[in-house]
Amino acid sequence: MEVKTSLLDNMIGVGDMVLLEPLNEDSFIENLRKRFDHNEIYTYIGSVVISMNPYRSLPIFTPEKVEEYRNRNFYELSPHIYALADEAYRSLRDQDKDQCILITGESGAGKTEASKLVMSYVAAVCGKGQEVNKVKEQLLQSNPVLEAFGNAKTVRNDNSSRFGKYMDIEFDFKGDPLGGVISNYLLEKSRVCKQPRGERNFHIFYQLLSGASGDTLTKLKLDRDFSKYNYLSLDSATVSGLDDAASFRTVRNAMQIVGFMEDEVQSVLELVAAVLKLGNIEFKPESRVNGFDESRVKDKNDLKEMCELLGIEQSVLERAFSYRTVEAKMEKVSTTLNVAQAYYARDALAKNLYSRLFSWLVTRINESIKAQAKTRHKVMGVLDIYGFEIFEDNSFEQFIINYCNEKLQQIFIELTLREEQEEYVREGIEWTNIEYFNNAVICDLIENNQNGILAMLDEECLRPGTVTDDTFLDKLNTICAEHQHFESRLSKNSKFLTDHSLPHSCFRIQHYAGKVLYRVEGFVDKNNDLLYRDLSQAMYKATHSLMRQLFPEGNPAKVNLKRPPTAGFQFKASVGGLMRNLQTKNPNYIRCIKPNDKKASHIFTDSLVCHQVRYLGLMENVRVRRAGYAFRQPYEPCLERYKMLCRQTWPHWRGPARDGVEVLLIDCSVPAEEFAYGRSKIFIRNPRTLFTLEERRRACLQDLATLIQKIYRGWKCRTHFILLKKSQVVVAAWYRRYAQQKKYEKIKRATLVMQSFTRGWKARKILRQLKYEKRCKEAVTTIAAYWHGTEARRELRCLKEEARRKHAVAVIWAYWRGLQVRREYRKFFRANAGKKIYCFIIQRIMQKYFLGLKTTMPSMSPIDNTWSAQPYSFLEGAHTELRRIFHFWRCKKHRGQFTEEKKAVYEEKLEASEIFKDKKALYPSSVSQPFKGDYLEIQKNPKYQKLNSAVEEKVLLADVVNKINRANGKGSPRLFLLTKSNFVLADQKTGQVKASVPLPDLTSVSVSTQSDGFFALKLKEGSASAAKGDFLLSSEHLIEIITKLHRTGTTAADKDQINIDISDEFLVQFKQDKVCVKFIQGGPKNGTSAACKRKNNRLLEVSVPSSP
Hints:
Methane Monooxygenase Hydroxylase, Chain G, domain 1, Alpha-Beta Plaits, disordered N terminus, alpha+beta, 16% strand
């Protein structure tokens, strides 16, 4: 039987602050402290969860805990973040209500960890399946990527989120996740250029330098030493407990799971490296004749490396750091930048580059995790955003963060009151208006379109003339002086003139969480967030794959003279959209609190917690919740919990639960004004009434426990006596049986002894008789044996004598016959002896030669030319022939190891050698390079999916080539695809097919003898493909392209062999004209690659660099 617990069971302090009695700030803090000391980090305020950061791992997030809170009522178990996540998920799945979970708190309070716990719980309890698991994994793995690029180590938190994040997780009708959409708010991009003491830049910089391989750092032109980069703080470069190298591997793996291509990952790392290089660029002043100072780059090495990473011409970027172009209607005015302005431009570029890269990452992740189905989705939003911030020095960032929190507090109070009112109406209980502080007046002070602070800041930034922070403060003092929540020492309000706690360059706003002093310095610059147009246009000219996406305003063809929107305007619009989104969903709240500033466990600082309780508005939340009825509970669990207090309801109530609760409350003499009956719930006004019921229940449970113990002890004693009685009967029976067995065994042993003695006597008597008979037989046998032996030895001596005589006769006869044979053979021996000896010697020499050849055999490698020396001249022919046969044999063995693919590669290399060896200067450098064929990975890359579907046959070669324009000699990139029957030229960006030429229409290919990559494809005159003329192209893989063209044309049954013309001067047909292409030595001035230039209408000249 499942044992159900309750929020009120085994309480440490009070699990729900609504039930706290007495309710004041001290008792609120003391209750949090008591629960924190007993590792109870979660507390409720109604349906709101307060989460204390324990700064250590607790065993309350295990899979067992997930199952414990799964499909349970919110108040059924002790407070936990899983209870809120389960309530939100079940409301979304079963009631078709869109949900949002708002997580707020200051830095270090555990907001990011809370959002991870919510997402991990939802992932654990939703459906299973290959596709669902893939979606869940992508949603979870998006966190490490965003944390690496958006989180940093601060004095308050080692993994502080420096951006606001809102994720909409989309579900189908079954409650299975389909995908998600992430929105980011206000990345703290100023951290890229400067970090406060004791803090770090964003994690990705340190992870890249610590975890990337040596080859990767070399490609990115980086060094592992943090001290070599001005943008990285050194006092906190390494953080205990953070393994940057392991984190980098985790980020790379997460990007792969989310769906980033390898080239996209490399492009992102190149931009991160470029930001580091940008921080090392320094400037020096240089005086001009007109008296103005001009900035110049000191050391151009870092500038050069950064330009190489981004693909920008060094001179273009250097000029953008020294000059600024201002456009007004049809006029352009170029002004020089001094050193301070150059440093400002450099930092502005670094901040914008990193900020836009982060926004691109969010967009790219959204493309991967967005739901593919077009049907309506259920949505659960998770908001992880900065909490209210009050520092010693508060600036523009704190101002807009606190503005966002004012809006969240406003919607929080509105939605909480609306939820309370809806529940009262749903239960049929009269609703009474609740007095509370409405912070709409503060929101209006900030966001009013006419007299709001943000509107005045935008107006000040956009007006002509001299604009400073002081002029902005003057405008505030003029317009907002009489506002009850605005304070400034220079305003017209005389009561602040002598307030020395209010500096002259500051203003103070009385937020719902308290008064905050803002220093006006930097407000105008940070709101402008200005990036010079020259830098935008320089970035747009970069050849890097991402730069044009990040800086679209740099396109010269789309110059917009309109000033870009300010940072405050953009943030106000984002917050407005967020508020509209949240109002369409059912809200769930998690308020995160950090117990101390030391990031240590078991330390609870009252003043710090009190400060957070105030600015989170938790006391206000409790008062709103308690304004009507403090506690409400469905009738069934209420009757189940308190039924033992009334004899009529104990142990079972047979009627409706509401009737049972009415009987119970009347029997307990609870005053009628202390409760109210809803349609499905009982409402209790005062927590004291609930605690009184709890005390009576606790006492009743003790009486019931005593009764149960008494009955149990009686039952146990009776059972023990009956068991002893049964045991005595069994023991007596077993003993009697044992005694009879012993008596029987004794008689049996005596009988066996007597039988054994009798049998022994009889056996000994028979044995003696048998032994006597045996001795008599042995004596007769011995005498007979001695007699037969004597007779045998006598006969043996006679036979031996006769044998010796016969042997002597045989020996004498053999010697006599041998003498006769030798006399007959002697006359023939001299004539045949020489030939016999010669053949024998030759045979021995050859045997020795073959045995020696066996031990000196060379290796099985076909390129091993060693062979043993020739020992005798008469073996020269055999020696040579054996060497040839052995070489052919081992070549055959080596060829037998080749696969079909390897044979094809060697055949292509052999054919390339036959075509280009000693004819083309580029050929030697291509020998060591393998023929890859598909350089674009056209089957895998989704960018070319449309082009892949347009090509019906298998692609033998896919590469990027440059199509040479006859008009100016410049190249435009094209995709070159070769199949068995034709070749295709397509646009690199769109993948649109520009030309498709059947191979039978290709008559010849012309190339030069030099080391360039130019080649001309000449088409058959009169064919449909030759309407626009021949193709003049250039490629880094010229040898491979022409070899595959020649090989494909040779193997085609209906095609003549393609001619390869190798000459430094050949003709190319462009429409109706023939143009001569001429190759000359002597490379271009600014590079090592060949360059094509138009000389006249009939001549294109290609300059090829001289070989080193």
